[in-house]
Amino acid sequence: MGGKTRRKLWSGRFTEETDRLVEVFTASLPFDMRLYDHDIEGSIAHCRMLEKQGIIPPADAGKILEALAELRTEIGSGAFRFVQSDEDIHMAIERGLIERIGPAGGKVHTGRSRNDQVSLDMRLYLRDEIGEILKLVAGLQKTFIALARRELDTIMPGYTHMQKAQPVLLSHYLLAFREMLGRDATRLAECLERVNVMPLGSAALAGTSLPLDRKYTARLLGFKSISANSMDAVADRDFVAEFIFDASLLMMHLSRFCEDLIIWSSGEFGFVEISDAYTTGSSIMPQKKNPDVAELVRGKTGRVYGNLVKILTVLKGLPMTYNRDLQEDKEPLFDTVDTVKMSLMVLNGMAGNLTFNRPRMLEEAAKGFSTATDVAEYLVTYGVPFREAHGIVGRLVAHCIAKGKDLSDLSLREFRKFYTGFDEGVYAVIPVKKAVNARQTIGGTARKEVLKQIGEAEKKGKSKRIKDKG
């Protein structure tokens, strides 16, 4: 199981070579390989700063920059040969530099440590990925807005406790998820501000005696700010935990939508038909059409939650500053990024290809005494205290259940048995369409209000696209 391996770039004070099993156990190269482009980006900026400060000669800087460009191409094409003894992507690239240009390649690590280097790479990587995720979130929001406009006149039953509550517009329901995604986007944008802090120059934990120009490096790399404390900079993974937390909330919102689709697509509900392109069949039951995509998004939400617990558990007991435990930050981060991006992409496609059963939704919206609250509010307009009106209508509903009737089936005489002040106006508030359009409070489900919400959402989306292009 053991065995010996080649000498490391850091092995000067060691008299024995690393055991092969230890080498395999400690290596992060199999998963941090994806950071190669960001590692090279950081090394290019660092090299240019070192040259500017006169720390390395222009000739050596030129060789380093040229070799880094070659390595970027080779790694990207798959031509670069990685070896197990590289340990991680940082050492692999430095080895590649030294093999190409000799000892001058070792100068790129002047004034930095892998401790601040890996933090830099993670921030560069996450900065890019958050940008991509924000675009995907905006795309899904746009799909929900388009669906809301298309389904503007579709009435459905609204639920609380999974029981029919009050009739609402389907477009109102869809816009609720647009709001959730808006909060997700805000959180991710705020997280991005804390990601966009440059740690390079903190070195191992205490900074360096060399005259680095950290502000110059930050400008080259597009960072808005620079870490203020070198110990915190190399120990900090708050930005990783914060991103995964934000991603967990985002996935929770996607999961809730998928849960509704799974229920609504069942024969018992029959509210929606999911496109064949986003469903699968059974290996034994030929009639089945399963909402597997929605179920997988729901399932993968738990996976992201697990990543959050993992990173929080890794961080909770670490002494200051850098500890090798922090190597365990990458896999949960990478997995979360991949899971969120794929879930957003597939859900956007599925949502855009839904067919809603409008007659069925309207039929169910009228059941379950869903406009009983409207009858109570009708009584309030006649001066009846709401709590008293609530009791009157509750007894009316009990009467209807006992007689097998709906509220609209009752005669005025029956209504007046429960409250003498009822008049013909009660029949005007019972129809579901009337009930929906009566709810004109800001944020309500009335068609007029929902149309306003759609217009405002479209305006915000258009404004954001113009801003992004600018």
Break the fold down into its secondary structure elements and pairings.
Blueprint lengths: L19 H7 L2 H4 L3 H17 L5 H20 L11 H13 L12 H37 L4 E6 L2 E7 H26 L1 E2 L15 H8 L3 E2 L3 H6 L2 H27 L7 E3 L17 H24 L14 H22 L2 E3 L1 H8 L6 H9 L5 H18 L8 H7 L7 H4 L2 H7 L8 H23 L1
Parallel strand pairs: 3-4
Antiparallel strand pairs: 1-2, 5-6
Helix pairs in contact: 3-4, 3-6, 3-8, 4-5, 6-7, 6-12, 6-19, 7-10, 10-11, 10-12, 11-12, 14-15
Total number of helices: 19
Total DSSP E strands: 6
* Major beta-sheet overview: 2 strands, antiparallel
Order of helices and strands: HHHHHHEEHEHEHHEHHEHHHHHHH
Uncertain runs? 1-5
Radius of gyration: 31 Å
List the domain count as a whole number: 3
- CATH class category name of the largest domain: Mainly Alpha
From the coordinates shown, what is the CATH architecture of the largest domain?
Up-down Bundle
Q: Given the helix and strand composition, which structural class is it? A: mainly alpha
Strand order in the largest sheet:
1-2
Global mean pLDDT? 95
| C-alpha termini separation | 58 Å
> What's the CATH topology name of the largest domain?
Fumarase C, Chain A, domain 2
- What proportion of the residues form beta strands (DSSP E)? under 5%
Q: Give the helix proportion (percent range).
A: 55-70%
CATH superfamily of the largest domain: Fumarase/aspartase (Central domain)
